[in-house]
């Protein structure tokens, strides 16, 4: 049986760090059970995760260097929402920036919290299809810190890459279960 809980009460909040992508806060909180505790929370605007499908049984993956891991990894294209940006617009923008194609059809597949124990980032998954080249004068390009290579694979091959440990990114491994 699920116990009903009341929303948390924030006693006071301190910003520890404010960066380009996220903010870290410390909150003196009162939990639903009445316990007082200091919580460190990573605040994030949210991200879109794309499942680009030129054809039903295909997906475009990207390979990029992830500095934090000090290695190249395969993943689904994704990106952080800009302040005030609608998620469907972010999906179109990121598709063009990361794989150089513009979707004419986007379908929201769901949204999930990958690390709710300390972070409020929400990942919003979209299938993007009917992919076309962007306008010649499009300003959308990869970010300065991105070195991205895209590759078309079958969904079966992408799932095999997960099984073989070639895809280690959790959002990608999960995203492939949605199609």
General description of the model:
This protein is an alpha+beta fold. It has 2 domains: 9-44; 47-178, Alpha-Beta Complex (Nucleoside Triphosphate Pyrophosphohydrolase), CATH 3.90.79.10. It has 3 helices and 10 strands; from the N terminus they run E-E-E-E-E-E-E-H-E-E-E-H-H. It has helices at residues 87-99, 155-163, 170-175; strands spanning 9-18, 22-30, 36-44, 47-53, 58-66, 71-75, 78-80, 102-112, 123-132, 148-154. The protein has a 4-stranded mixed beta sheet with strand order 7-4-9-8. A 3-stranded antiparallel beta sheet has the order 1-2-3, with no helix packed on it. A 3-stranded antiparallel beta sheet has the order 6-5-10. A hairpin with a 4-residue loop joins strand 5 and strand 6. The mean pLDDT is 92.
């Amino acid at each position: 049986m699920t116990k009903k809980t009341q929303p948390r009460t924030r006693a006071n909040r301190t910003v520890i760090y404010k960066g380009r992508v996220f903010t870290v806060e410390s909150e003196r909180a009162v939990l639903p059970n009445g316990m007082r505790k200091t919580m460190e929370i990573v605040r994030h605007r949210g991200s879109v995760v794309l499942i680009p499908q030129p054809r039903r049984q295909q997906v475009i993956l990207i390979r990029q260097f992830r500095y934090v891991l000090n290695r190249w990894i395969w993943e689904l294209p994704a990106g952080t929402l800009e302040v005030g940006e609608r998620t469907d617009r972010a999906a179109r923008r990121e598709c063009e920036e990361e794989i150089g194609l513009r979707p004419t059809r986007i379908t929201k597949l769901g949204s999930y919290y990958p690390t709710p124990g300390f972070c409020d980032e929400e990942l919003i998954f979209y299938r993007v299809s009917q992919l076309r080249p962007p306008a010649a004068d499009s300003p959308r390009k990869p970010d300065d810190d991105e070195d991205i290579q895209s590759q078309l694979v079958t969904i079966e091959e992408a799932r095999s890459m997960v099984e073989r440990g070639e895809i280690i990114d959790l959002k990608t491994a999960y995203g492939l279960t949605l199609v």
